[in-house]
Amino acid sequence: MELIIAANWKMHKTTGETSDFCRAILKEEKLFSGVEILICPPYTSLPAAANIIVDSSLKLGAQDLHWEKEGAFTGEISGAMLADLGVEYVLVGHSERRHILGEDNNRISSKVKAALDCGLKPILCVGETEAEREAGATNEVIEEQLISALKALSAGKIGDLVVAYEPVWAIGTGKAALPSDAEAACLFITEALQNIAGPETVKKTRIQYGGSVKEGNIGSFVEQTSIHGALVGGASLKADSFSKLVHAARKAVQS
Ligand code: 13P
Q: What is the per-residue pLDDT across 78-126, written as a single tens digit (0 to 9) for each?
């Protein structure tokens, strides 16, 4: 399966900073063959990024969407609006939205469905907190997040999904999961998806690891059988460190 590496910039970068990043990363574009790369800037920077990467292999993702196509939802952005800008992927259920902004599994389920209805590919984020991990509840939490997020979908639609396993305790802490633990969780996700949608449907479903991924450790994650890429926060903010990270990932899978 082709690796998929996504840059989640969270609430970082103005339009000017976005344009500078895109121009810099495009200089390296030829070296990225075999890896699908997408950047997920804040909403305000999507048009600037779209203009620059339009004829390139780089893809655009958004960090969230609303579950309705339009309506009286002050401050919100719909999937149709994102698709109109050339956005192809959208993060759904990122742990910062679950834990800081109070999104629950029902809301996330509506968002996954809305994304697919608008032709966007959802990257569904799942993962346990430190307390859940210590209580030995990692698999239970992940399974519940998957089942409730996907309950409104037909099995066929589930194949279009990317799942990002992001243990909450590893995000922005510099304390990445052990590759073997991440592999165990991603294998569990594969098996849970097979139970939900059937083995044929999930054959093309890619699973990313996220949480303190950087140039020095990405190889040890993408070498794992059940991990097909990464969702990267802090290390994706500078074009040079992000491109080094992509090279390290390519090298690891090619060796
Ligand atoms: P960091 O790579 O900064 O830990 O963030 C991970 C993340 O939340 C990506 O969505």
A: 999 999 999 999 999 999 999 999 999 999 999 999 999 999 999 999 9
Supply the residues annotated as catalytic: 94, 166
Pocket around ligand 1 at a 6 A CB cut-off? 8, 94, 166, 171-172, 210-213, 231-235
Please check whether residue 116 is in contact with residue 154, taking contact to mean a CB–CB distance below 8 angstroms.
no
pLDDT class of 6 with cuts at 50, 70, 90: very high
Domain that holds residue 223: 3-254
The CA 153 to ligand 1 mean position distance, Å, reads: 27
Decide: residue 41, CB within 10 A, 0-12 exposed, 13-18 middle, 19+ buried.
buried
pTM exceeds 0.70, yes or no: yes
Q: Look at the chain and report how many structural domains it folds into.
A: 1
Here the tokens at position 224 are: 């794992």
Distance 210 CA to ligand 1 centre (A): 6
d(CA 114, CA 70): 11
Q: Which two tokens stand for residue 236?
A: 């994706």
